[in-house]
Specification:
single chain; 264 residues; mainly alpha; di-copper center containing domain from catechol oxidase; two-stranded antiparallel sheet; 8 helices; 2 strands; globular; binds copper (II) ion
Length: 264
């Protein structure tokens, strides 16, 4: 809703990993996000995401004072100040039927909250069986494979919009499957430990945790190992109220509505 207030009708595209309608070929094209590369990371050589784009090739909406798409020197993480891509060969795309199964994993498994399984598979995937979020980063490679600085590549936002979409689908399925449940029931109880490592969820992953950098005045809370470097160029959010994971769980209230892959 905040975005729509700025630009009426604006939408956030997502990258349909399961590629129902040939998404990969449509996104990674010289007329949109630029081509993919295999092998060692190297600068993108087509599209407006090149370091320098000749004036005649800039689209009408391109900012008049932008010569191209340089990467901030503090955020290039050894990949250089031109947007880089390039990867080793990974298993991709994920099979659509397995993605559907993941979205439907909404009921407790012998007393263990299903979010533990859903979260791990959505984030890490299952090697050689179900590539998901992490593999998507490495499939693109270059800046996208940087844990801290992958948002340099605009495809990051389409990648994470798909994470959010799958999560929203899972949440809707869980609300329907667990009669009388509410959005906070999408999360494991605070005292439940991970069935994988018998530890609580890490900071930033728990229901009441503030979401960095929107942590308000909380001193010492910082999930970024590169915090000082990033903070030097970030706006200061400390005067704003903290935003918690719980605040963001009601996707309907936040104003998101997702079109199915391939369009309505
Ligand atoms: Cu990511």
């Amino acid at each position: 809703m905040a975005l729509q207030a700025e630009v009426p009708g604006v939408t956030l595209p997502y990258w349909d990993w399961a590629d129902h309608v040939g998404a990969t070929g449509k996104l990674f094209h010289k007329d949109f996000l630029g081509s993919l590369r295999t092998g060692a990371p190297a600068p993108v050589t087509d599209s407006v995401l090149r370091r320098s784009v000749p004036p005649a090739e800039r689209p009408a909406w391109w900012p008049a004072n932008a010569p191209g798409f340089p990467i901030h020197p503090l955020l290039e993480d050894s990949f250089g100040t031109s947007l880089a891509r390039g990867s080793v060969q990974v298993s991709w795309p994920p099979p659509p039927a397995l993605m559907t199964q993941l979205e439907q994993l909404v009921v407790d498994q012998e007393g263990v909250h299903p979010f533990w399984f859903f979260w791990v598979v959505l984030e890490q995937g299952i090697p050689a069986v179900l590539p998901t979020h992490n593999t998507g980063h490495n499939f693109i490679g270059g800046h996208m494979s940087s844990q801290a600085f992958s948002p340099n590549d605009p495809v990051f936002w389409l990648h994470h919009a798909n994470v959010d979409r799958i999560w929203a689908t899972w949440q809707a399925g869980r609300l329907a499957a667990v009669v009388g449940s509410k959005p906070s029931d999408h999360y494991p109880p605070p005292d439940q430990l991970s069935p994988f490592d018998l530890k609580p969820a890490p900071p930033g992953h728990r229901l009441g945790d503030a979401m960095w950098p929107w942590v308000g005045g909380a001193a010492g809370y910082d999930v970024m190992s590169l915090g000082p470097q990033v903070k030097a160029i970030l706006p200061d959010f400390s005067a704003q109220a903290a935003v918690t994971v719980d605040d963001m769980l009601e996707v309907d209230a936040v104003g998101y509505r997702y079109e199915p892959p391939g369009g309505p």
